[in-house]
Amino acid sequence: MMKHIVLIGFMGTGKTSCGRMLATRLGCGLVDLDKYIETKESMSVPEIFAAKGEPYFREKEREAVREVVQRKFTVIATGGGTVKDEENFRILKERGVLVCLTADIDTILQRTERRGERPMLDRQEDRRKTVETLLENRRAMYARADFTIDTSRLSPMEASEAIVGFLRVGGYIRA
Ligand code: S3P
């Protein structure tokens, strides 16, 4: 069975936009985990956080991981916190090749500027400090990816081309 392509990494590193490009490029399906949850819950992620709290969102995220890996070859764009859960990490690692997108802090701050989309950042006053702390806490878990790419200075197209190159060399795709 072919392994899924799983994009992991912090908010604002380009998982959704690269995921879209990659799926088009590879001619396969795309699941954006946040969107998948939003559709199932008929609520946006910020609404879920506000109405039901983060633990509820994480529970839905765990369910979503278990469901989407059952599909045939798919690009899976995860949320920034998805692989913080060890069991999510284990399942995704077993069923997929993990590609971690990174970006420098300024790029992350700029890309996540729009309010009302990122409950992990919106409630905080000092966004830079919050991003720094979260990044520090999450660095080790993102580092367990099979391949890491810094997207700070790349367009989604350029980033996905680099990912395709890696996937080809690693024998994960033939395209
Ligand atoms: C989160 C990242 C978000 C979303 C939720 C929590 C996180 O996804 O899943 O707001 O804990 O880092 P993106 O990385 O797509 O913004």
Q: Can you list the strand order of the major beta sheet? A: 2-3-1-4-5
Q: List cofactors, ions and other ligands.
A: shikimate-3-phosphate
- The CATH topology assignment is Rossmann fold
What is the percent of helical residues? 40-55%
- Structural class by secondary-structure content: alpha/beta
The number of E-state strands comes to 5
Largest sheet: 5 strands, parallel
- What is the total number of structural domains? 1
Strand content: 5-15%
N-to-C SSE series? EHEHHHEHEHHHEH
Query: Low-confidence stretches at least 5 residues in length (pLDDT < 50)?
Result: none
CATH homologous superfamily classification? P-loop containing nucleotide triphosphate hydrolases
In CATH, what is the class?
Answer: Alpha Beta
Describe the structure.
- The protein is of the alpha/beta class.
- It has one domain: P-loop containing nucleotide triphosphate hydrolases (Rossmann fold).
- The protein contains nine helices and five strands, in the order βαβαααβαβαααβα.
- Strands 2-3-1-4-5 form a five-stranded parallel sheet.
- Helix 2 crosses helix 4.
- Shikimate-3-phosphate (S3P) binds next to helix 1 and helix 7.
